[in-house]
Structure formats: structure tokens, C-alpha cells
């Protein structure tokens, strides 16, 4: 995985590079699952990692086709206080380069009981839902992709999940949360970013063994 792009600024997708196959796959996923309607305001959750950055860029490319308005939301999970401000500023610059609204917040302290991973997930979706409601966004787009889906199925299997859990991550949840990258693999996403010269941030928590998915 590439090292953190410490000095490279977020880059909008303006280069003349053939990425049509990637964009078509996203478009087909959106259409097959009825993810977007004309006039939707879509809040994109962006951590700065490759998946969410690719999601923001591809929705930016498709915004005219679907006549949608975009916004970017970033949540500081409080796990990396030494780099959190820099990461938030980086995502804010991405939003500015794409000329979309930017919203951010920071989590408080983990209460210390229960699963940290589950708590972070709940807090993240609460933040996105609250921001969408307050700012008038009709959809929330998150960057789950095909590898995440496979990992989720395996994790549910290891936990003894029933058939519902083995279905994996749904492309659409509650007609509000959408996952346009769910058919794309991490390899395809990284190749898309590389072809366009788009920078992204490396997340060291992906190696944190406190989280079941990482183990």
C-alpha cells in the first residue's frame, strides 16, 4: 500500500485518462439498485482513505448525469490525535477542490465498555445521519467495496451468524444509505486513483488488531 501522501494535495478528476470502465460499473450499480433520484442531495462520508476518496471523485464525475448535489462529511474518530487535525484539513481541501460543502466533527472519549469497533461504527453513522438531517441531504454515500463485503461475510460466519448475516453488506440500507462501490474491488479502486493521479491518506488503524476485521 502506498505511504501517506504527506505533501501531495487532493486532486480533482480533471485529467484526460480513460477511467470509463470503472465509472460505468459504478453507474450500473447505482441504476440496478435505484440508489439515486434526480435532485438528490448526497452526503459522502470521506475518511481520506482510498475507498472514500474514490467514491467522492466518481460521484463528482456523475453529478450532472443524475442531477445531484454533493457534500462531504468527515469524522475524527479520536484514535490518532497527533495527525487528526492534518487529516481533517486534507479532506476539507478535497471538498474545496471539488467545490462541495464540507462538514466535520470529532468523537468524544470511548466509554470503555463494550466493543470499540461497534461503538465507532455507531458513532460514525449517527454523525452522518445527523448531519444529513440538519443540512437537508436525502442520501448518504459510504465507501464500502467488494473486499469489505467478502470480509463481512467471513466475519459473520466466524461469529456464527445466521443466513441474514451471511448476505453481507447491503448495497442500500433504508433507502437512504447507499454504497455505489460495492461491486468494485480494492485493486480496481487503487488502479482508478493511480490512473488519475489522485492522492489519498493511509490509515494506520487498518493494522490495529483491536478490531475484529483487522485480525
In brief:
The chain is an alpha/beta fold.
Structure description:
The chain is built from six helices and six strands. With 215 residues, it is an alpha/beta fold. β1, α2 and β2 form a beta-alpha-beta unit. The protein is globular, with a radius of gyration of 17 Å.
Task: List the SSEs and their pairings.
Blueprint: H1 20-32, E1 41-45, H2 50-66, E2 69-76, H3 84-98, E3 101-106, H4 116-135, E4 139-141, H5 146-158, E5 172-173, E6 177-178, H6 186-196
Parallel strand pairs: 1-2, 1-4, 2-3, 4-6
Antiparallel strand pairs: 5-6
Segments where pLDDT lies below 50 for 5+ residues?
Answer: 1-7, 207-212
Oligomer: single chain
Shape: globular
Question: What is the distance, rounded to the nearest whole angstrom, between the alpha carbons of the first and last residues?
Answer: 18 Å
By DSSP, the count of extended strands is 6
Question: What is the arithmetic mean of pLDDT?
Answer: 84
Helix and strand string, N-terminal first?
Answer: HEHEHEHEHEEH
Number of helices: 6
Largest sheet: 6 strands, mixed
Main-sheet strand order equals: 3-2-1-4-6-5
Structural class: alpha/beta
What percentage of amino acids are in beta strands?
Answer: 5-15%
Helix-residue proportion: 40-55%
The radius of gyration computed from the alpha-carbon positions, rounded to a whole number of angstroms, is: 17 Å
